[in-house]
Every structure is written in structure tokens, then in C-alpha cells.
Design a protein that fits this description.
This protein has 5 helices and 5 strands; from the N terminus they run βαβαβαβαβα. By secondary structure, it is an alpha/beta fold. The chain binds adenosine-5'-diphosphate.
Length: about 150
């Protein structure tokens, strides 16, 4: 069984995440959407809200599981019996950041990171831009799955 963990903050899930996950479903038998819990980070949405948005977005998709985790992503992968980490790449900055993390993860555990390039037209979307649009009463619905409503 090819199982991947797609880790992230998902504050909130965006059409960019959604696209990578949907395309990842063609590569893996199961994808665990793993919401990282970081006590030092300030989130716009609570853990429960972020989890609910994701669960609603993938309702009826049996290959998707939604979980939360604390600590190292690789330790969570071992616990969940996942051999792969799935990540998206938007731009050179993502590449540099992700490269260091992927190398570190492979040093720590034998886990391969699989990168999918963002679809054209979605590379500008980020959770932080969505939060900014929400804070300023803009039409955020164009940037997120229908499940995300505030
Ligand atoms: P983190 O806090 O770990 O950066 P995010 O929720 O911001 O978590 O992102 C999780 C993953 O989703 C990362 O691999 C990121 O590159 C990817 N991602 C986010 N937005 C997009 C997008 N628009 N297109 C492709 N990948 C994306």
C-alpha cells in the first residue's frame, strides 16, 4: 500500500493545496492530510476549524484521511506507516526551503519526499494571501474549496 503524508498548516486549505492533493491521489493509495500543531504559531483558524474544512472538502473520498500531529513529520510518518511525504512547489523559494527539509528528513528516516509542481494559474495562492483577503473582507471564495466558509 503506497501511503503518503501531506503535512501542512492548512490555515486554511486553499485551491493550491486541493490541486496537489487531487493529483496526488493518482500516485498513492492513501494520503493522510496531516495538520501540524505548533504551539508557537498563531493561527487564524482553530485546529478544529481547519480539520473541519479539510474533512468537508474531501467528504466521500475514501483514500483521504485527516489527522493532526505534533513533533517531527518523519516520526509521524513512521507511526502511520507512510513511506512518502507529498509536498507542492510553487516557486524557487519553495524549492530552496523544501530541499533542505527533504534532505533532513531523508537523513533522519528513509522517507522519500515527492514534489508536485503547482498547476498553472494556482502558483500565486497561499494560505497567508487568503487570510489577508479574509481580514480585508475580499472575495476569498475564489481561492479556496467550497468547504471553506467563514
Ligand atoms: P506549511 O506551514 O508547512 O508551509 P502550508 O499549509 O502553507 O504549510 O503548505 C503545505 C504544502 O502545500 C507545501 O508543500 C506548500 O508548498 C503546498 N502549497 C501551498 N500552496 C500551494 C499552491 N498554491 N500550489 C502548490 N502547492 C502549494
Amino acid at each position: 500500500m503506497k501511503r503518503a503524508v501531506f503535512p501542512g498548516s492548512f490555515d486554511p486549505i486553499t485551491n493550491g493545496h486541493y490541486d496537489i492533493i487531487e493529483r496526488g491521489l493518482k500516485l498513492f493509495d492513501e494520503i493522510i492530510l496531516a495538520i501540524g500543531v505548533n504551539a508557537d504559531k498563531k493561527y487564524m483558524f482553530s485546529l478544529e476549524q481547519r480539520q473541519q474544512f479539510i474533512e468537508d472538502a474531501f467528504k466521500g473520498e475514501p483514500k483521504i484521511k485527516v489527522k493532526t500531529y505534533e513533533g517531527l513529520t518523519v516520526d509521524f510518518c513512521i507511526k502511520e506507516n507512510a513511506d512518502f511525504i507529498l509536498r507542492g512547489l510553487r516557486n524557487p523559494a519553495d524549492f530552496e526551503f523544501e530541499k533542505a527539509i527533504a534532505h533532513t528528513n531523508r537523513k533522519l528516516q528513509k522517507i522519500e519526499t515527492v514534489f508536485l509542481l503547482t498547476s498553472s494559474g494556482k502558483s500565486y495562492i497561499s494560505s497567508s494571501i487568503v487570510r489577508d483577503v479574509i481580514r480585508n473582507n475580499g472575495d476569498y471564495t475564489l481561492l479556496v474549496p467550497d468547504a471553506v466558509r467563514v
